[in-house]
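[Q] Does anyone have a clean structure-token version of this?
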Amino acid sequence: MHVLITGGAGFIGSNLVRFLLNKGLEITVVDNFDEFYSPKIKFANIHDFLNCKKFHLINIDMHNLPNTSSVNGKFDMLIHLASKGGVRLSIKQKEIYHEVNVEGTRQVFNYVIKNNIPKVVFASSSSIYGNSKELPWHENISPLQPISPYAFTKLLCEQMGMEYSKKHNFDFISLRFFSVYGPHMRPDLALYSFSEKILNNEPIRLFGDGSSMRDYTYVDDIVEGIYNAILYNKKKTDIFNLGYGKAHSLLEMVNTLEKHLNKKAILEFTNSIKEEADKTWANTEKAKQTLNFIAHTDFDTGVELFCKWFVNKCKN
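[A] Here you go.
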């Protein structure tokens, strides 16, 4: 099987590439190494793959996919991970997020249609549930009411994928990720930035009183969920939550970092952000029953694994 992955040099993408190469799949990654965070980090993420005969890297923006001849080969599947992430920055850059996430995804679908790729697996987000009170969140919640520009772009991409799938006859599976963390995560994400501040004796600014909750999901579990979606062939279009299935508070997250870094955090509290959900919590029953997805890594274990990776990275 030959799989095309957009955004494959990023956090989830590079972990997925490692997993799929170990499964014997051929992988082509397209990534534009956007400066949303340092391109050096992304190149480091994929450094170990560069000499692998089954790994191919093409530096290109997804907007240009339909009109390029540099992405060659017959692909059995496309996994679309590329996007501009982050709720807070999207508040200030609504137009940019729409252009990158929505219009960029439109061009990815145009490439799929032009090259007759039979299946797309799309990285969506738990943020599309907004502040729905139907906890834990299940895939049939309606209407969906995202509360940030980033979340709204993800919902638009889901809807576009469903529409294009029916019109142009390719399979479309949307995976709603819940607060993914682990090795190689983006520096702007909470566990990474908090760990950095704890080790550097810098204050951590917490939005709200620390009671907001997230369903943190370890990246290895997410990667296995994506792999199961690759193998899934029961329906042409479907949507699945990929989460651990338990929510932890922001203060609990900080306390767990303190435990595994063996150092106390300096905390500063500020106003909460209305575009961020108070609580995310995945109902994963559908993914368990249909995708055979089970998240095995509990939060304490996952944070310990992350901290070991992070401390080792800082030493080097």
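[Q] Thanks! Anything notable?
[A] The longest strand covers residues 119-125.
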